[in-house]
Please model this.
Amino acid sequence: MLFDLAEICRMLQVSVPPSHAVADSLKFDGVSTLELAGETQLCFAERTEQAQAVRGSRAGAVIVPEDFPELEGCCLIRVPNARQGFFRVAAHFSPASGISGIHASAVVDDGAGLGADVAVGACAVISAGVTLGDRCVVGPGCYLGPGVVLGADCLLEANVSILRESVLGARCIVHAGSVIGSDGFGFAWDGSGHRKIPQLGRVVIEDDVDIGCNCCVDRATLGETRIRRGTKIDNLVQVAHNTDIGEHVILVSQSGVAGSSSVGTGAVIAGQVAISDHVNVGAGARVGGQSGVTKDVPAGATVFGTPARAMRDTLRELAALAQLPTLLKDVKRQSREIEALRERLARLEGPES
Model:
């Protein structure tokens, strides 16, 4: 895939740099970093301190902020936001799924409804009652259970399982190996053993949700497990039954949300965070990595630690803990000095009469 400089500038809605008026003579076949880019690649720089790195880069062109210094011999494309502009261009170089049409080895039930331009990869299984929106791509080895619904422009990478009656909105991406709609972890002790509680609910995932590799989103016991629009989930994340994940939430790798908890709009849950059941994390809250959330977190709060509490309190405690070895040495030294003073005092006072 090749784009010339004029096409790149049209993507960014800016003018061609004056020093490169013959814009069709410069071709680009990809993007890279300043250090690794070649003459046919684009990269970006955000800070004026990167001017030397830009000058030393072999990149064919560099996307920079409007106030970036002039550099002779460098093709600089000036935009209001260099990072956003770069990613807008980079999207045009994203490789296609490589899947088109229905593969001969795919199993598509006659009772499934497929929209226009749907693609189904090798060995995928699409059950009765499945509805796929226009331009959906179902990767090789995927399984879609009875009654599954996908909105338009969804992408399921290889070996994704979407189990019965789960619903995905438009433009969702589910990366390889994830499972949507498996049974929630529900058991009750009856005096002799753990008896399984039927998991009769479903999963609803709204528009523009991205779910990483090897994630699990469990169906509700009753009702819904819901992930709201715009949320982005990293690899290896567990979302338990009857949880409600708000809009535009970030869930980072190896985090887990236990049953019947909720995470508010715009919250950020860092890596390896454990959120207990029946807990509410408020809108815009931030939870630091490896925290254990055992009670509600107020909206906008920043918490850290186990149990999770105000970040500043946890950091003070950790700072104090780091001084503990020195404090213990001081206590031992002071104990020895006190004991020596007692012995000296006893000698001065002489034997008791």
